[in-house]
Specification:
The structure is a homotetramer. The first copy, chain A, is α/β, with parallel strands linked by helices. The first copy, chain A, has ten helices and 17 strands. In chain A, helix 4 packs parallel to helix 5, helix 5 packs antiparallel against helix 10 and helix 7 crosses helix 10.
């Protein structure tokens, strides 16, 4: 450990994402040469029991039922927020006010205004922020970006993006917090933000959208098996046409009731010299087609992740062994810690979360008005 | 041949589709129990030389440079039109006026009004018509339809359709008849009509669309290598949201500059009990997911075409041997001949071509106005 | 037709392969510039009824229940044999004796001695012969051969071949002619000959084999549902190690009880500079990996058949449309007719059928003795 | 931590596998409810510098250049051996002599006699052992086993196994410890042991083998770029036919020069009622075919790993997110720790390592004699 400075983490939330973040930090500490000695200080949950259980399983030193305790804990440098969307703003602003760096799950906040407030606070306070757009933290997506930036597939002309799963397909599944309109929306806000982030990452700023939203299941039982129904007000499906500042055009779809799909986070990018096809269903592969290849033996190349695609090599020295979802979280955590050490901004900081939310918001607005809605980037 | 009545075919056009139609008839005569003895009477091309060459290679008895000769040839019962889109109407109306059955390549005609005129003429004359929506004539697409109609994938909720190729990706490729706006459009009219036909076939009538069209290459050389440019006025890409009369919603894209794609005629259909995924890139396969399968061993089934998927068995008694594109044309030809014999209507007759054209037209209109456009079906 | 010489075909056998051959000739006449005007003269079947039915459906002029009539028919230049294996020798020798060219289904004959006799007779008579190794007549297999011969994948080092289907998987399926040991064997002779032919075609002469044969179902009902059983004496599975004259080594498997497999005719060829992977399950694709590609974007290329892969372009001017099994037969027929016209030898003539049979025979011998058996090539 | 007993780990070796083991333990502690509080006590490497570096990066408390120090460390309960094969025996015996549980990388030891000695020592001492056959620790492989054991694919009839990579394909790659014949062999011992373990795991004991070994590159530079060559005496490729005690038959291939392959650890298992196809290239998928499915919609199901396939759910509550190679190591570590807690034997303990080595050894013996070699199981 030598001269390495310690960095303390306080985690809020112990569900799916709470565990994934804890794992991300833990794996990052083993595979990357972190700039800090990592200290998992304290974990907060609604119940002390839940917090204590998470403390033990996730490897934290302390547990609390009051997330505000983390703010004043002098051992804690980073507040890591994995609670429902509705709570992000309050927690993040409080953390920033206490001078903490903030790692927050996506989407950043339900409204653009809240996101703007969070960005302003973070930038004024000079803290480093990170948002959990984990699908971007994939060596194969880094490769896609590199192939685009190097010009190897030429100028991007058209794009398709999808994020579809089926966890809401069952009409008898009860109403839940995911359906609370105060969260800022449904499928688009929840999972569509991932594909918007991917398109922005790879193709650049989106200038305008024309969209529609669909509610497939208009009412759901208030609890499993109940005959009392509650109206659903948020989108099960959102589809949008997008125009990029670069001139490229495309489309995306967010869908949480695509029966049979478990992780259809896909993009297809068509350039003047080639194309790139990716599906998160096979996250260790990237398909690339080069117009410049000999016509006789030209075809989509299925590239398998290997040490030649950083940071894959941090996880395994041999190609073809594959990384998993939690490893993406480790890459995300490492990027955050490196940014803290160097005082730089991760590519998916609060400002990027804000930009993504602007597209989410514009998309919902377009769906209401059936008109193209401009997005003010920058 | 015994008591089988002879049926005579007159083919107009000897290009890609002319050859495919001739092959379709020839193969159909060998694999199906046709209701007629087939007689390939005469072939017409712009040049007598071309016609004569096609006569020899495609197996016709006569050749002519004047397509009108076919109209009055008493041996000819069917006029088969494979000329550019612009010419379909005149030829079809003339054929109908002479009491001929008409087999016409898609799209039926550049405008809805012309299509309507063609339908009215055909129906009044009582002739049988067929339009070349060949991708529907696939045992795997028949299976998809059967799985939908049987209710095995439940009520259809959402749909995606794509028809993308890359033959216009090269910006230096010269202006051609495909870009002539009088043909009724660009990528949408030319290849998008295939995916519209597929969505209608599988999901039913489309009630409205919201669309955008993109011209990617605004001007092209008037001939290969020329520095003189001609403006492109038709779409390279069209994207649309669609609503079906059934309540299902979806999207489609037509794109003839999707670098690397040679035959991305794809559809994904999500129902309440399962889903269906197809790509023409692997036309002998259909992927189906059933919610009712045991959860532990549930997954997309990759079904290979076999004799259990009619009419595959007509081509081969053993499964897994595969049919090709020209075999789809044979199925199309057989369906037409059977309809003539029974006096019934093929599913893809002029009326269906008219319905598809209504969607094409509404899509272009929507792209101009940026509003939802209703399609009057029926 | 002009100056084209007529060539007459007499077909013996009207089952699966009889129909496929007739289709092959018919399609070939439409897609290739054949050196002859094709005349489907007469078809012979065991029953006159069957022959007559085939005459009508397959487009022949005459029908007969006596195959010997074809021998003396002056209109017939080619005798096309699609009967069970046991009958090939007698029919082929008779045809050769009458100066006919002979097209014969694989395997050529049950024993090496019979094959040798057939080769000697054909070569002495100066007739042209062709054997139905149809899977080799694939533009993608031609591409594989070209990539090997050009040195693009370097020196071939190791090879795997499989031909597996499941039509004999059901133990209650009755005993049939396929199980008659006089036919020369079971799965190896019947379908394994295809993969041996493929390995010879691509990697060159096989010098020795070490093999085992397995009888999975030791007895079968004498007819469907019967309780009387008949012993099975031929292989359900044969596995072999092979050594090539070039120094390459490999293995193959023939298996007709591989549950779920319909056409697993696969090969994988590993060279010093690349590798080639093919499955007949996707016959319009070839996968190729080049060591020389940039390491970052290196991966198996999935090449789709297109006009740049002759003779695909004869079937379709546009890439990605796909050919089917009967089209392979058309390529095979064309190759035969071109060889007749030029007096050359097709790559899969009787001599090649004889060489394949030598490997089949050596493989069975090795399985009996459990020793490496040399194959005298040449 | 409560009442949980502490368990201490001493790791020997800090290379590829050393890191993977450390990660496995670390991840296991976060995702599983381990029966112990895990204590990564000390790490040994040849150099103190290497050990110290690993201590920091892998999270151990102490570092040493003398692995024997771990034996007498009272905090250490488990000796974890990730050194080259040649060293396993000495280290394991020493650990056992000190009453430590032993976790050892595969293959267990170069000779069957050494393995027997190690098993005897471990069983006499009553310590728990584990061997690193990590590819078996995959939820999809567990599912495969479950489908076999439940009888869902019927009686297994035939099997294929491959473990192929290409890390030795380059003939200019220098001689290395992997080529030292004292290690017990080449590709078969090194990577082929994985596929033998998989076949045993899924299909049961192997009773006999008939094999061949190939040296593709007969000599290699003694160091990179050197002109001095050293003969290669171990196999680059080994192929074997295998017979199982159950009556099933099959084949396997080990190949470390299969150009383009990075992780072709594949098996295909054909039963009387279905079949299972797996490739480690897509480790989160299993393909299964059921004869009992409706014939019309029957096809290989591509099953994606999800919470319904334990222990996937420990890593992620949502399906489709995927686990990676290091997660397989975590499952392996957890299994070991659970066995220690309950005093049971992991399925891949030293005895299983010994059984695998017996097959490796018999395979080499068969290749020398070209005869079937029996394997005494049990």
């Amino acid at each position: 450990m030598g001269g390495k400075r310690r960095i303390g983490v306080g985690l809020i939330g112990t569900g799916f994402m709470g565990k994934a973040h804890a794992l991300g930090f833990t794996i990052a500490a083993r595979v990357f040469d972190l700039p800090f000695e990592l200290d998992l200080v304290s974990v907060a949950d609604i119940s002390l029991d839940g917090a204590e259980k998470a403390r033990r399983s996730l490897g934290f030193r302390k547990a609390t039922a009051d997330w505000r305790e983390l703010l004043t804990d002098p051992d804690i440098d980073i507040i890591d927020i994995t609670t429902p969307n509705l709570l992000h703003r309050e927690m993040a602003l409080a953390a920033i006010a206490h001078g903490k760096h903030v790692y927050c799950e996506k989407p950043l906040a339900p409204t653009v205004a809240e996101c703007a407030e969070m960005v302003a606070a973070a930038e004024k306070a000079g803290v480093v922020t990170q948002v959990g757009f984990n699908y971007l933290k994939n060596p194969m997506v880094f490769l896609a970006k590199e192939l685009i930036e190097s010009g190897e597939i030429g100028e991007i002309r058209s794009v398709r993006g999808i994020h579809a799963e089926d966890f809401m397909m069952d009409a008898s599944a009860p109403w839940s917090w995911r359906l609370d309109p105060r969260s800022g929306g449904g499928a688009l806000a929840d999972i569509g933000s991932h594909i918007i982030a991917a398109l922005r990452h790879l193709v650049g700023p989106i200038s305008s959208v024309l969209a529609e939203t669909i509610i497939q299941v208009p009412a759901r039982p208030i609890s499993r098996g109940s005959s009392e129904m509650r109206a659903v007000e948020v989108d099960d499906i959102t589809r949008a046409f997008v125009r990029f500042e670069s001139g490229a055009t495309g489309s995306f779809e967010a869908n949480w009731s695509a029966t049979g799909r478990k992780m259809q986070h896909d993009f297809e990018i068509y350039g003047t010299k080639g194309s790139i096809v990716f599906t998160q269903e096979r996250l260790n592969e990237l398909k690339v087609w080069f117009a410049g290849d000999d016509i006789r033996s030209r075809g989509y190349r299925t590239i398998w992740a290997g040490p030649e695609h950083p940071p894959y090599g941090a996880f395994c020295v041999a190609p073809g062994h594959q990384i998993g979802f939690n490893d993406l979280k480790a890459i995300e955590a490492n990027e955050f810690l490196q940014a803290i050490a160097t005082g730089s901004r991760p590519g998916t900081d609060f400002r990027e979360g804000f930009e993504v939310q602007k597209v989410v918001s514009a998309t919902y607005q377009s769906a209401k008005t059936n008109t193209w809605v401009q997005i003010g980037n920058g």
